[in-house]
Automatic annotation (TrEMBL):
InterPro entries: NA-bd_OB-fold. It comes from Cellulomonas soli. It comes from the Bacteria. Gene3D superfamilies: Nucleic acid-binding proteins. This is NfeD-like C-terminal domain-containing protein.
Amino acid sequence: MSEQTPVGRTGLVTTTIPVGGMGEVRVAIAGGTSTYGAYGVDRTVPVPTGTRVGVVELFPPRTIVVAPVDLTPRD
């Protein structure tokens, strides 16, 4: 994982990603944080503000595709 790319990192949804629309996600990168416009990987499901997500794709310069991260402990 490159230090300069958000792909493979986790972030926090700061503006809800609506069905078929774009929200915003804050990602820790290169010693700081950056905010990106974001689509959900499943565009039929909204991703609410406060959801932890993983970045799966980057459309330069400032748009990403994200998927919710399951933080539930496994047995």
